[in-house]
Design a protein that fits this description.
By secondary structure, this protein is an alpha/beta fold. It folds into 3 domains: 127 residues, NAD(P)-binding Rossmann-like Domain (Rossmann fold, 3-Layer(aba) Sandwich), CATH 3.40.50.720; 207 residues, Dihydrodipicolinate Reductase, domain 2 (2-Layer Sandwich); 48 residues, no CATH class. 34% of the residues lie in helices and 21% in strands. It contains 16 helices and 15 strands. Helix 1 packs parallel to helix 2. The radius of gyration is 21 Å and the shape is globular. The chain binds nicotinamide-adenine-dinucleotide. Nicotinamide-adenine-dinucleotide binds next to loops.
């Protein structure tokens, strides 16, 4: 039986909390929950105890160390705001705990260096929850590449699209500031760069990035005839005519998690997406070289009419074209996050001088296109899972290499020139690809 505490009790923690106290209750025990927001602590403890049928303790974040001392967990699960992951990861390892952390592992080079140093010293295990790897259609692409179907990969074109529901949501909350999230190239694209590193079994060496905030700005609000906007939707005089309004009162789960708890910390979940307080980009283009000489053209657009991605791999024996559309969602409103549209997911293999082959798509059910349930099994019941030839479990090395692309891209945009990873950090251990 392994014991856990969770720090960070927002939308995402519920996946881990509920897995521990329900599906994996025979192997796992939840000991305590911790946050800076007393309202969310009380809410989560109450829900956990009702579901688990045993006592779960609640701690304020300033008592994190006391919590570790008193309940002595095997593992700490970190699901706080991105910029605060590092402190909890390090303190957990220093106290002798393993760590499961949400992506991105952290947001800048200094915090990354501190985490890697603490891991080396403590030798504790960090798991970064890259659920995207577990999505069946993406595992299928991994299988195709591993089978040698297209030979050696030479170049990749990768476009990720966030639509104006999901994409807009990053411009309402803490994600809208680089000091909290690292921007979308760290916060969001850590998933995408991890997928590429994992698919091609290499890591980036040089990154050149350009980015702008072109859509989520006052000028766009004016195009929607919004000239008297408020700080947030809840009190905005123009809410009724704004197509980007998030009505927290209308969604019981969003209301309970955020609106009802904001008197504790002053955090608004529904800030105006056209605000000039935003400092992250919404349109980004990167050119990346990998250590194995693969070249990647990558773009991320956060105001797209549809949600999903297109990736094309060019190899010496052929080409893979893979495309997935996802349903839109707003975190914590009760819908399945990022569920893939089966009928809009395609993978086509184009062998050179042979007929193309449309692949029958591997399917899965549940959050993030079937990825979340798979990942939870490997997280909380690893002994009973078959050997994973795809090596989807990821540790601090994959966590580090997946964020270094975005961190280098941020630097590249500041300097307006290509940036070599080894200018920022050297001697990072390579992920365990084989
Ligand atoms: N893998 C995925 O698909 C996925 C999906 C959603 C979120 N996430 C990640 O999960 C994490 C949480 O995201 P979320 O959507 O739940 O955000 P959220 O805003 O709903 O929740 C964040 C929680 O952290 C708490 N918090 C903030 N600062 C803190 C601090 N210093 N100490 C303790 N608690 C603090 C907040 O009070 C809040 O309860 C993020 O790192 C995010 O990137 C991953």
């Amino acid at each position: 039986m392994r014991s856990y505490v969770i720090v960070g009790l927002g939308g995402r923690h519920e996946l881990f909390r509920d897995a521990i106290i329900s599906e994996f209750r025979n192997n796992c025990r939840l000991l305590a929950l911790c946050d800076i927001n007393q309202g969310r602590i009380d809410k989560s403890v109450k829900e956990a105890e009702e579901k688990a049928g045993y006592t779960v303790k609640g701690y304020h974040a300033y008592d994190f160390n006391l919590m570790l001392k008193e309940v002595n967990p095997d593992s700490v699960i970190v699901t706080t705001m991105d910029s605060t992951h590092d402190g909890y990861i390090i303190r957990a390892m220093e106290s002798g705990c393993d760590v499961i952390t949400e992506k991105p592992m952290t947001i800048d080079v200094q915090k990354l260096t501190n985490i890697l140093g603490a891991q080396k010293k403590s030798k504790k295990k960090i798991t970064v929850t890259f659920n995207y790897r577990y999505s069946p259609p993406r595992t299928q692409v991994k299988e195709l590449i591993m089978s040698g179907a297209i030979g050696d990969i030479i170049s990749i074109d990768f476009s990720w699209l966030l639509d104006t529901y999901h994409g807009a949501d990053y411009f309402r909350r803490w994600h809208r500031n680089k000091r909290s999230s690292g921007g979308l190239l760290v916060h969001k694209a850590t998933h995408h760069f991890d997928l590429v590193n994992w698919w091609i079994e290499s890591v980036p060496s040089v990154i050149y990035a350009k980015g702008t905030r072109s859509f989520y700005r006052a000028e766009t609000a004016l195009r929607y005839r919004l000239s008297n906007r408020g700080e947030r939707c809840h009190t905005c005089p123009e809410a009724l005519k704004c197509p980007f309004r998030l009505n927290l009162s209308n969604s019981p789960s969003l209301k309970a998690l955020y609106l009802d708890q904001e008197n504790y910390d002053g955090h608004f979940r529904d800030r105006c997406v056209f605000s000039d307080q935003i400092d992250i980009e919404d349109s980004m283009n990167l050119s990346i070289e990998y250590q194995n000489r693969v070249r990647l053209n990558y773009s991320l657009n956060a105001f797209s009419p549809w949600e999903g991605y297109i990736i094309n791999f060019n190899g010496t024996n052929g080409r893979i074209e893979h495309r997935m559309e996802e349903t839109v969602y707003i975190n914590a409103d009760g819908t399945i996050p990022g569920a893939m549209k089966m009928d809009k997911t395609r993978t086509t293999l184009y062998p050179i001088r042979e007929e193309p082959r449309e692949m029958e798509i591997w399917e899965g059910e549940g959050g993030h296109g079937g990825a979340d349930p798979h990942m939870l099994k490997y997280l909380f019941d690893p002994e009973n899972q078959p050997f994973d030839k795809y090596r989807r479990a990821s540790d601090h090395r994959s966590g580090a290499w997946s964020i270094i692309t975005g961190i280098s891209a941020n630097r590249s945009m500041e300097l307006n020139r290509p940036v070599r990873v080894d200018e920022l950090i050297s001697d990072m251990e390579l992920p365990d690809f084989k």
